[in-house]
Amino acid sequence: MAAKKIILRFGKDISDKPIIYHLAKDYGLVFNIIKANVNPNKEGTVVLELTGEQYAKGLEYLESEGVRVQPLAEQLSRNELKCTSCGACTDICPTGALYLHRPSMEVAFDSDNCVLCQICLKVCPVKAMEVKF
Amino acid sequence: MAIEKTYAEINEKIRSGKAVVLTAEEVIALVEEKGVSEAARQVDVVTTGTFSPMCSSGVFLNFGHSKPRIRMQKVWLNGIPAYSGIAAVDAYLGATELPEDDPCNSNYPGEFRYGGGHVIHDLLAGKSIKLEALSYGTDCYPRRELETYITLNDINEATLFNPRNAYQNYNCAVNLSGKTIYTYMGLLKPNLGNAHYSSAGQLSPLLNDPYFLTIGIGTRIFLGGGIGYVAWHGTQHFPGIQTDQEKNSYGPAGGTLAVIGDLKQMKPEWLVGTSYLGYGATLTVGIGIPIPILNEDVMSCVSITDRDLYAPVVDYSDAYGQRIPGNLGYVSYAELKTGKITINGKEIPTAPLSSYPKAREIAGKLKDWIQKGDFSLSEPVKLLPSFQDQITAKTLDINGV
């Protein structure tokens, strides 16, 4: 089973709980944290790859603890009507998720490689990158 | 025998549906296969295109007269000030104008999400735009203030007039400093972290007519998805030939165009409001220019490729801002388009700011228009100055009071 990339969103009331630890210990899930921003008494997000036989039960546990779980692919998208394929984002995107097809020089977005740093939202001159909540 | 064609002969072929039209990309292979002379014999028109941010752009508007009348002294469109120091209900809205309450770079780097270019785009998209005006009141123009909503259809004229567009060539921008900088060439990472360039290269209008053999005042063009004309040479029109210290030639640069056209027949996808983080707002403009193949010299010019065209590499952390002459060398557009160049011994990633796919689409559209007989070529009233005119840039001295 391929690892799925998900985003966990924590309310500030639960940001001090060892939630990821329980995913591994109680449900035997393998995780790889891509990005984390969790601070005491603040809302936090963790982007991780998660895989394992008890994946569904692990997600149920997360939700029972008040963690909102979203698939990563839904988070950022390239509005193909707005994007002019100028290319200005392609050397700023840190993971190569935004890149140029050569030789056509069309801009493409591979959400599998996106780590949601969101710098593209700022550098896109025509605001073609969009967040979906 | 030398090949000579006139505008009238080419237009006659366009009218009868017999004109042979290629884009500046397509003509390259033909010239490589058949040679310049044979290609000049076969082809009548070569179309070019570019789609890039062009800050020196804007629109003259005439709103029509309210009852009672107002002599507009201050004008805002969706909160963006327009220049109204002309007749009563005329105004000029510039592409880089910002709201008076925009935080700009006081919240560095500023986002500049909405400016004059965005208003132009919204007008074209048919959106309702808030018009506000203030005045001092006169005997003949009694109204002192006005607030209403307009659309592009509601107003008398909307004449796009861009004083400087279609730069013949442009810098490749890098950052030699140790911190990220935000420029009109985009975000430049520290220590030569990336390089940004902005030209359609082999498709670019003025790189395909580098010596201004065909483009002049009155040349009919693709402008913003509609039809426009070359009005004049652009501001800062300093056509020249790039050379390095050893006097090696790196091709033409420095020409610009002033263009004009009726905004009402343009399309929002070809005039797009644009924002540069930490720099400002502008307008991305689509321009395509047909090059009539009058002779072999013209065909030779349009057959250039990205391998033959070079951008100077310029440091935007210091050299550009401090107006320090010179550059870090030249790189060809073919190298730039691979995604990597080597500067000062370091391999660095490149990215364009000018859309090559859109430039190709514009050249293709213009080709279609000509092939269908919808677009004929206009003979310029006067050609524009070329490198032979040796126009040089003046600088601005800061004098004491």
Note down, in words, how this protein is organized.
The complex is a heterodimer of chains A (about 130) and B (about 400). Chain A has 3 helices and 8 strands, in the order E-H-E-E-H-E-E-E-E-H-E. Chain A is of the alpha+beta class. Chain A folds into 2 domains: about 5-75, Alpha-Beta Plaits (2-Layer Sandwich); about 75-130, Alpha-Beta Plaits. In chain A, helix 1 (about 20-25) runs antiparallel to helix 2 (about 55-65). The longest helix of chain A is centred in the middle third of the chain and has 10 residues, at about 55-65. The radius of gyration of chain A is 17 Å and the shape is elongated. Chain A starts with a strand and ends with a strand. The relative contact order of chain A is 0.19. The mean pLDDT of chain A is about 85. Chain B has about 400 residues and is an alpha+beta fold. Chain B has a domain at about 60-160. In chain B, a hairpin with a 5-residue loop joins strand 18 and strand 19 (about 250-255). The longest helix of chain B is centred in the last third of the chain and has 16 residues, at about 355-370. Chain B is globular. The mean pLDDT of chain B is about 95. At the A-B interface, loops of A face strand 3, strand 21, strand 27 and helix 8 of B.
What's the short version?
The complex is a heterodimer of chains A (133) and B (401). By secondary structure, chain A is of the alpha+beta class.
Report the sheet-strand fraction of chain A: 25-35%
CATH superfamily of the largest domain in chain A: ACT domain
Based on helices, strands and strand pairing, what is the structural class of chain B?
Answer: alpha+beta
Shape of chain A: elongated
Low-confidence stretches of chain A: none
State the oligomer.
heterodimer
Mean pLDDT across residues of chain A: 87
Shape of chain B: globular
The CATH C-level name of the largest domain in chain A is: Alpha Beta
Largest interface: A-B, 20 and 32 residues
| CATH fold-level assignment of the largest domain in chain A | Alpha-Beta Plaits
State the helical fraction of chain B.
Answer: 10-25%
Q: Distance between the terminal alpha carbons of chain A, to the nearest Å? A: 26 Å
What portion of residues of chain B belong to β-strands? 25-35%
Using the CA coordinates, give the radius of gyration of chain A.
17 Å
- Total discrete domains of chain A: 2
Q: What's the tally of helices of chain A?
A: 3
Q: What's the total count of β strands of chain A?
A: 8
Return the CATH architecture of the largest domain in chain A. 2-Layer Sandwich
* Uncertain spans of chain B: none
